[in-house]
Amino acid sequence: MAHANGGSGDEQKKAAAAAATRSNKYDRQLRIWGEHGQGALEQASVCLLNCGATGSEALKNLVLGGIGNVTAVDGGLVHESDLGNNFLLSAENLGQPRAKSMAALLQEMNDSVLIDHIDASPESLLDSDPGFFARFTLVIATQMRDRSLVILDEVCRRFSVMLLVARSYGLTGYVRISLREHAVIESKPDNTVSDLRLHRPWPELTTFVEEFNLETEDSLVHKHIPFAIILLKVCEEWRSKHGGALPSTTKERSEFKSLVASKKQAQDEDNYKEAVAAASKVWSPPSLSSEVKAILEDGAADVDSSSSDFWILVAALKRFVASEGGGEFPLDGAIPDMHSFTEYYILLQRCYQAKAESDVSAVEAHVRSILSQLGRDPDSISRAAIKHFCKNSRNLRVLRYRSLAEELGLKEVGAKLQKYLPFEGDNTNYAIYLMFRAVDRFAEEFGRFPGAMADETVEEDAAKVGAIAHKLAGEIGLDGGVSEELVYEFCRFGGGEIHCVGAVVGGIASQEAIKLVTKQFTPTAGTLIYNAISSTTTIFQL
Amino acid sequence: MEARWRDIDFLLQRPGKLVSDGFEPGPEVCSAAQCVCLVIGSSLSLQLREFLRDFKILVIGAGGLGCEMLKDLALSGFGNIDVIDMDTIDVSNLNRQFLFRMHDVGKPKAQVAAEKIMQRIKGVTVTPHYGRIEDKDIEFYREFQLIVLGLDSLEARSYINSIACSFLEYNEDGELDMSTIKPMVDGGTEGFKGHARVILPGFTPCFHCTLWLFPPQVTYPLCTLAETPRSPAHCIEYVHLIQWGQDREGESFNPDNPEHMTWMYEQALKRAEQFNISGVTYSLTQGVVKNIIPAIASTNAIVSAICSLEALKLATMCSKGLDNYMMYSGTQGVYTHTVSYEKDSSCMVCSPGVPVEVDSSITLQEFIDMLLLDARFKDKLSKPSVSFQGTNLYMQAPPVLEEMTRPNLQSSLLSLMGSKGVLNVNDRKLAGVLRVQVAFRNVPTPMAV
Q: How far apart are CA B422 and CA B162, in angstroms?
């Protein structure tokens, strides 16, 4: 193994140096999604359809982030107009295939990414070799029309490939994910409320709290008792005087806070200030979100042998909640910082962590039992995975998307869009949604986008596409029409791809892609419309 | 029509129906904001393209936002871009600052960025400035028609804001001379979140008007760090703020020096072990000590593009402008919120004047003493110079001027000004000018004849 000249030592040094460079290069993003997230990105295989401004921007961000491999697909040649909106194409590429030309600069941006290109149109691939798409984790389809998207969506669903649609059109754009089901364990909500269980301490916590005395004469100790312990003790006192109940009315809650404040012995006791400020945690413990409740009630939680690991874990969670949990979820175990002696805090922390650990064990038992019952290997889900699930159980998310055939066939879309109208105000983002459908129908009929020709046809085209839009609105039963100004604007755009708008839409698309691939954070549940005229966005669940 | 600009020319060369409609404050700003008001109309043809090519625009920062902004502006038709940045390229920049390569590490960001943009996009001139924004003369900034900010610090934003607002000229009635507005577009990002805003000093809130938008920095109480640490961050900050000064007295801590950082980490680890605290890592140590903000390509791309689009709208009025603040969050779906904040009418930096009421008998010296004690200007003044409508009332420097204006100190302020009005206060500590709106109490009424 080791060579006489120390060759493998050199290789090891090289490998170590490469690893250090990689950590250094990705440092700012590792801090967001961690090594496991980065690993998921590096394993992913992405296909980009159409290498215009939007597509190239989406891909640029993914390549910089270290995506595993990408394949760019485009049937066009580099045209003069590409030089005005696409950073990845330059004058020396004129007349050459777009996909091939883009791949070259992209590679320079990150030599760790495997970059390939197919010089053919997405539509021709869909036609001649739909199986081509099966190899990818994710397909990002940019600047494609409704008709082709419907076909692409069906192909992707057939092969269980995730689809992300992104399009920019003048000063507007949209992004839409399409897949059957995406389960997120690590949704990482912005604000997490720590679960202190002040309203329901478990036996070990109660025992631990007994060691502390709020009446102690040692003033140093007194002002370093963590606020959670203060609250637990005051709860006990309250309960003993109120037949076991916790403060419920506004008056009682106010009395409770006064009771907490009365335990203060000196002015500078920050821990008591913290306790008063945190008192509401006693009667308003963190509640379960409607999303999580819905997951527990979801039909997929009635597992069978074909169920995914995620749903097996949900089924185990349900059993836990119904038995050992007594209605509570597994304890997360994290506690906020509290003004306290280090020793008290560490011991308190260990108490919470021990309870979290024992909840994990209980859930684990259910997992193994369910797997056995389903005739599957009981050890197929690791304890580490179960622990990860338990820690994040309050923040689970499941997203499901309607097929594009259904949505773009405009079934029920009118009724759904209608619901947004009262909230839109001056925003006419729902009308932008309609205009996208209208311009595609115009293109089907006339072989070009409205206003794509010389200025003189803009007025004529506006009349035609306006008529299409109004007809559509009527067909789907939408009250709000499309304003004349907006119809005109769409014709003014001439179907053009503006770099800045492509960068926003492509940027959002790349971000959604990262969330889908890493399974962290929550992808957008619906069609996102970007309105660069008013600088607003709206998400329509259609 | 130049074929290259086909797609954006649909916007620039065609009239629109949703252009600067409802964009406050309206057509007057159009004439001010960019010297030549070019209304989109039939006479346009090539004028707007040439106008953009020569439009003098400054990008501050050539990092995560700056690189994207340079690309976006160049691909929007801006042909005369300056960029300033004091940093050199680091390996950790490469996950998002796409103009830089491994072999560029160590070189000045502004210079490499300028080269790369000009290489790839023909016809644009990007002039780099490698240095600090504070080292440029105020006249440097006056030349630009628009300033786009891709900064990562409060202090830098504050500085540029003061400079831009110092160009404002108000008349005695507090009315703004529109031609003195220096528009700014400001972008910021952190992880999946960011913001883009348009600042028209004197109209929309300036950076100082909305200082409350920025959350305060996290600091830990000294007693926690020294006596009762509970988290890994406490241990790290103790070593950073207290132990370094004790153990390595006289040595200035350099976070980019690997030996310094390693020492910091090892000491923090030791301390954590003493207190049974787990979780101190080298990565966390760096993060806490350098106040590292997580950053990714996508958010920077989104925010920069929104900012650049606003710059294009400001320059050409080709569409409605952002009025005036857009926040973006991409963690849970995509959420944006666009809001029109209002300026602070007595803002220290952009308003016609911070109101001060004095007795009519007050002397200039007494007035200056009063300013120094005013809580609103705490720490912002040291040796203020005062002028009124272009006349120097008292100048602290140079010695010749100081001697000439010294007698004024004993004169009554009211006699020097003639009536209530706005004084301009300059000070070494101020980046721009402090306008003070002086009102007098107990003004003696003229004797009846």
A: 18
